[in-house]
Write a structure and sequence with these properties.
Largest sheet of chain C: 2 strands, antiparallel
Order of helices and strands of chain C: HHHHEEHHHHHHHH
Shape of chain C: globular
Helix content of chain B: 25-40%
CATH class of chain B: Alpha Beta
Helix content of chain C: over 70%
Order of helices and strands of chain B: EEEHEEHEHHHEHEHEEHH
Oligomer: heterotrimer
Chains: A mainly alpha (about 325), B alpha/beta (about 260), C mainly alpha (about 290)
Number of domains of chain C: 2
Structural class of chain C: mainly alpha
Number of domains of chain B: 1
Number of strands of chain C: 2
CATH topology of chain B: Rossmann fold
Distance between the termini of chain B: 35 Å
Strand content of chain C: under 5%
């Protein structure tokens, strides 16, 4: 710790502490690593770009989930609701004549934010089990709606006939997935930038307060309900963006985008990487998705078993994920 | 010294609250004068903590009025009352456990300064908030713990940080719910010292069982029993009051009543 | 009988039968969630286990129905004790996320395990001869097995409610659900109570899963597929409540049957919307403690 071992000269030790505290948001050189890795992957793994795009988009999804889960402490089993809403919005637009990707993305973000705001308004009035329950019902409700409204969504078969136009009219979505990859990377970067700003802002800090002790937050006059609603909406918006990315880059939207599988999967990915730390998503998602990609060739059933076992073991032997492991090793 | 014309910092009039058949507040008339050092004592189950919850707004009153600085706040939510200058500490330490001491106090000041709604600019920009938080910790001799997570600190120091957080709200009225509760006797002196040094313009209400602490810190004592106020007066009078003696059945009015 | 009346009776009948199954499965979940504050998403696994045990005993070993039912209940109860002691116990009062992850992990493992041992296909359930066919009630005849479900369910519910009211075990359960710390300070061995209650609840779930094997298909993804329904019954009924889930199950069972019959294009959508509406009005459930 910064102040231990220092000769207590009062003022300078204090200034040290204040300075360290005030500088927490500054960028650390290691933060360039994920972006360097992503750019390198573009060059080194040209045949894996479609998987790469999916990974990038899912990182954004996991990031959005971490905002509510890791920072605000809201445990949700229905985050796929916003992901799927974004995916279907972008998909339906593209399948019905408006294939412009950027506006489609923005529309998806807006619609997902709206769904987040409305559902958050209902769901966030409670905590704990009741809240968890309600998030699950919201997602299941949307899943069922998408299933039954097959005349727009394609139902069980999924949304067909998407036609996504070239970005800025110039960059076509090519078969190798190059455009898709860069598109996802740029959007992820923007989303990450937003998430990072929010997390380090006074608002973001107050969220950790809400997570650590809600009672105390009320007692210092914080408008807890409003804060949670705001972060829920921001998170829903980003989740919608990631859903739209997947829809636009794969040119397909299925019911799986709204499933419990998807909501549960993002929780697992965050746990693997580390919850409540921005980079948990950057580690957990690629690990999970690459492992899943390898495994699904062998036996899909065994995948379920090993993932289930991993979750049980992680809970049993301490959470914190990969980043938590690094922390422990450093000490 | 308060004149009869000066408004009290905090006042309740005929405050009532029941949970079914259990009456936790039975028409309570209470005044907390400006700059007071007032203690609220009473046996277990007397309704002291419920009273604090009613005053802060954590509990909704069934009837009666609560006035803060002369203005009625009975129907205001907790956060609004805090904004007007009402702060409390909890009987069981309620801090942001995994956050540092500095962070704990900063959060309180950020709320007070209405900085906490900013979600786009880094918290570090608001340096004055951090500096004030640090100064507050220093004033309570907690400066060296500033960057340590509060759940790694000794319990006595955690209780002090509770008080620091409440002070960060720049309160006009400070409600201390058993400030030395759970603190090992070696550290009680720290807590008492801090309470003694609180700024004189803050009205302080201490809820406690510990008679030593109460008699040392309070200039006025209210005794509460079963949701009602039994008697009120300066410490010497309360110590001699036969009703009070009876209430604390068999236990000496002087000396600790800690179980 | 007129057509609409006949339809109503049919829906009511099948709805109630479904409700009985749902209640038997979910009541244990409600009590343990209310008592231990433990988010047990894997509760459906016990119902599934009951179904697999029943069908395996009957189909592969020719065990008679009643015996197989008992076997299902007992096997599930025993399995639940193991899981409670080994895994759940450490997480009581702990982080909610931990509990969600652990139990989801168990669900995933159950999917894999069930596929491994029994294969991916649904296990058929053949009710015994004396229960199949139609039973003639005079004005109408009803399917025998469904009638049995309703009667059996009603009997079990009565025994359960009486047991909770009259026995000391029941009193202890109600005390612990109401105020755990008080119950402990009064001298109730809450640790043992948890295990016993959990075993009872899971055993009932196993029984429910077995009895309802032709209503809720016994296949590897059982715990996932039906999770929402079980949680709805508990959430709408009220956590920790024993009567609440009964009425919630009735509501859900009849509504689900009704909607699927009358408005199949909308499916379960209305159920979820109805659930949200109820939870909007009463966040802690109909009979939940506010």
């Amino acid at each position: 710790m910064a102040t231990e071992g220092l000769v207590r000269t009062g003022i300078s030790a204090g200034q040290e502490a204040i300075g360290a505290f005030a500088r927490r948001h500054r960028h650390h050189p290691l933060e360039a690593l994920p972006w360097a890795a992503a750019v390198a992957a573009f060059a080194v793994f040209p045949s894996y770009l479609p998987l790469g795009s999916q990974i990038l988009a899912t990182i954004l999804f996991a990031l959005s989930a971490d905002l509510v889960l890791g920072y605000a402490g809201i445990v949700t089993l229905g985050h796929a609701a916003f992901f799927g809403t974004g995916a279907y919005t972008a998909g339906i637009l593209a399948a019905n004549g408006w294939g412009e990707p950027i506006t489609g993305l923005l529309a998806a973000t807006a619609v997902a934010a709206l769904v987040g705001l409305l559902s958050g308004f209902v769901v966030l009035r409670t905590t704990g089990l009741a809240l968890l329950m309600q998030t699950l019902v919201v997602a299941t409700l949307l899943h069922e709606a998408a299933n039954k409204a097959s005349f727009i969504t394609g139902g069980d078969d999924g949304l067909q006939g998407m036609d996504v136009w070239p970005i800025f009219g110039l960059f076509r979505f090519d078969l190798f997935g190059r455009t898709a990859y860069v598109y996802c990377l740029v959007v992820l970067f923007l989303g990450w930038w937003v998430a990072r700003r929010v997390v380090h802002s006074p608002f973001g800090r107050s969220l950790t307060g809400i997570r650590e002790n809600v009672l105390r937050m009320h007692a210092i006059g914080a408008p807890v309900v409003r804060r949670r609603l705001v972060i829920y909406t921001i998170s829903a918006a980003l989740a919608g963006t990631s859903g739209a990315l997947i829809a636009q880059t794969t040119q397909f939207v299925g019911l799986g985008t709204l499933s419990l599988d998807r909501s549960g999967g993002v929780l697992i990915m965050l746990i693997i990487g580390g919850v409540g730390r921005i980079y948990g998503a950057f580690i957990g998602v690629p690990l999970y998705m690459i492992a899943q990609d390898r495994f699904s060739e062998i036996q899909p059933v065994y995948w379920y078993f090993w993932i289930g076992l991993l979750m049980v073991l992680v809970v049993r032997f301490g959470r914190g994920g990969v980043l938590g492991l690094f922390d422990r090793l450093r000490r | 010294m308060s004149s009869a014309l000066e408004e009290p910092a905090l006042e309740t009039r005929a405050l009532c609250k029941s949970f079914g058949a259990l009456r936790v507040a039975d028409s309570i008339d209470f005044r907390l004068e400006r700059g007071a050092r007032h203690a609220l004592i009473g046996p277990n189950g007397a309704g002291k903590t419920s009273f604090v919850n009613l005053v802060t707004g954590a509990l909704r009153a069934d009837a009666g009025a609560i006035l803060f600085d002369g203005a009625e706040v009975t129907n205001l939510p907790q956060s609004a009352r805090v904004k007007r200058g009402l702060a409390r500490t909890f009987q069981v330490t309620a801090l942001f456990r995994r956050l540092t001491a500095l962070e704990n106090v900063t959060l309180a000041i950020a709320e007070r300064e209405a900085v906490a709604d900013d979600f786009m600019w880094p918290a570090g920009r608001h340096r004055h908030v951090i500096e004030e938080a640090f100064a507050l910790l220093e004033a309570l001799d907690l400066g060296e713990d500033a960057l340590r997570p509060v759940n790694t600190l000794a319990y006595g120091r955690q209780r002090l940080i509770e008080i620091a957080v409440a002070l960060g709200l720049a309160p006009k009225v400070l409600l201390l719910d058993e400030p030395a509760a759970g603190v090992p006797s070696s550290e009680t002196g720290l807590v008492i010292g801090v309470v003694e040094r609180l700024p004189p313009d803050i009205a302080v209400l201490i809820i406690d069982h510990d008679m030593d602490l109460v008699f040392r810190l309070a200039r006025r004592i209210t005794v509460m029993v079963e949701g009602r106020i039994l008697v009120e007066g300066p410490p010497e009078a309360i110590a001699k009051d036969p009703q009070v003696r009876q209430v604390y059945l068999g236990e000496r009015a002087q000396g600790s009543t800690r179980r | 009988m007129s057509d609409t009346f006949s339809a109503v009776v049919s829906i009511g009948f099948h709805g109630i039968a479904f409700a009985m199954v749902l209640y038997l499965i979910s009541v244990g979940l409600s009590v343990t969630m209310g008592m231990m504050g433990f988010v047990n998403l894997a509760h459906g696994v016990f119902a599934m286990l009951g179904g697999y045990v029943l069908t395996s005993l009957m189909n592969r070993l020719g065990v008679p129905f009643a015996l197989a039912l008992a076997g299902a209940a007992v096997a599930t109860a025993v399995a639940s004790v193991l899981i409670e002691r080994l895994l759940y116990r450490r997480l009581y009062g702990g982080d909610e996320l931990d509990q969600v992850l652990l139990t989801m992990g168990l669900i995933f493992m159950s999917v894999a395990g069930a596929t491994y041992f029994w294969g991916p296909v649904q296990q058929p359930m053949f009710p015994p001869r004396w229960l199949s066919g139609q039973i003639d009630f005079g004005f109408r005849s009803f399917p025998g097995y469904r009638s049995f479900l309703i009667l059996c369910g009603a009997a079990l519910v009565t025994v359960l409610w009486l047991g909770l009211e009259r026995t000391s075990f029941g009193v202890q359960i109600r005390a612990a659900v109401d105020n755990l710390r008080m119950a402990q300070s009064v001298g109730i061995n809450t640790s043992r109570l948890f295990t016993l209650t959990f075993a009872l609840g899971s055993g009932l779930a196993g029984l429910g899963g077995a009895l309802g094997a032709d209503l809720l298909a016994i296949n590897p993804s059982y715990a996932l597929d039906n999770l929402v329904y079980f949680l709805i019954v508990v959430a709408v009924g009220g956590l920790g409540s024993i009567r609440g889930p009964f009425f919630a199950a009735l509501l859900l069972g009849i509504a689900d049957t009704g909607f699927k019959y009358l408005l199949p294009e909308l499916g379960a959508f209305f159920i979820y919307a109805l659930t949200m509406a109820i939870l909007l009005w009463r966040p802690r459930g109909l009979f939940g403690r506010v």
